[in-house]
Write a structure and sequence with these properties.
single chain; 138 residues; 81% helix; elongated
Length: 138
Amino acid sequence: MKYNSVSTYFSKIQNRQLIPAFLPVLAFFAVYFLILVGEVTPIFIDESALLIAAVLALVALTDALVALVIFQLGMKRIRTKVSLGERLDAYANWCVVRYGLVYSGSWMLVVALYLTGLEWLSVAFGLHLLFYFLNKCF
């Protein structure tokens, strides 16, 4: 193992995953603020905006649920390994895959807000963040 203790290992995993998690949050707040100020106008304003936003929000939800299922299946395989070092390395890799999927869902919601400007996407983004923090891997 490359770390002095298991707690150091998990704190490193946590730090590696929290930093990329805040990039979509900052982008969402920036786009929301620019829409409120009037600097950015939504591209889709007609009835297609609701359809586009609903599809992207549904894809983000599906993305998060797929990440949860994939992680659970991966954890079953990781538990069968004998060595603690091998289990921790495999665990870190599965965390990266899982949160890569969750981050892509966050970016989809940012793009949906930019394209449509619908306010209910802020609630969807908040729920997506709640899912992230309730299901974190460490």
